[in-house]
Amino acid sequence: MSVSIPKTNTALMALLKADFAVLRANRRSAILALLVPVVILISWKPLIPKLGGAYALSAAITFGLMAIGLMGYSITVARDRDKGIFQRLRVAPVPTWAIMVSRLAIQLFMIMLLTILIFIIGKSYDGVTLTLAGYVITFFVAFLGGAVYLSLGQLIVGLIKNPETVNATTRIVYFIFIMVGMFGELGTLGEQVKKYIHYSPYGAVKMMLATSMIPQTWSSATSVAVLISIGYVLLFAGVGIKLFKWNTK
């Protein structure tokens, strides 16, 4: 009796279908990840005349990317690993890479949804309108920014096995990035901190996004931010993938 092994694309589609079903089941967490940047954007409306529309929109998208990569991806992976889901999938006739591609595809969908939502809220409520080039470039740059925080999430689950510790760590990192990034960039924490913020994951991603919204302001500093972001992705993902364990034992 022969055993029929499903094709890779068939297995990948089945994984995607299952992961989207999980996303729908956990829609409360997904909504919260999208709600935080929306609330920030709405609350910053009085500051837009002073700071600029690009500043407000880029900050909101950056905060959303943090939530997706840190509290969305890493916590979900840690929880499923603890439940033994990855271990069971590995003995199934499914390529290992397809398991992670399916998970990442869900996060890319969330990044797309976040970016479009911020564009809509920014235009309808805050009155911030970009050029067509600004919308298109920012849309694609958001995926690079998302990759920074997804790879950081991968690093956390690679270094830490316990799901509760992963949960606590990601929330602490998220809080630090928001507080230090937001206040540090405004100079509240001193000029030295403000200087180094630009080279942090928060500063590099935000600079890319803000400049992408006004393409004519693209400068060498923006190109450096792109290179720094790529460096963060390679470093975080490289270490995180190397140290990642498929089970908690």
UniProtKB/TrEMBL annotation:
Its main location: membrane. Residues 54-237 form the ABC-2 type transporter transmembrane domain. InterPro entries: ABC2_TM, Nod_factor_ABC_transporter. It is found in: Membrane. GO terms for cellular component: membrane. GO terms for molecular function: ABC-type transporter activity. Keywords: Membrane, Transmembrane, Transmembrane helix. The chain crosses the membrane at residues 30-48, 54-76, 97-121, 133-160, 172-190, 218-244. It comes from the Bacteria. It is a multi-pass membrane protein. This is ABC-2 family transporter protein. It comes from Pedobacter soli. The lineage of its organism: Bacteria, Pseudomonadati, Bacteroidota, Sphingobacteriia, Sphingobacteriales.
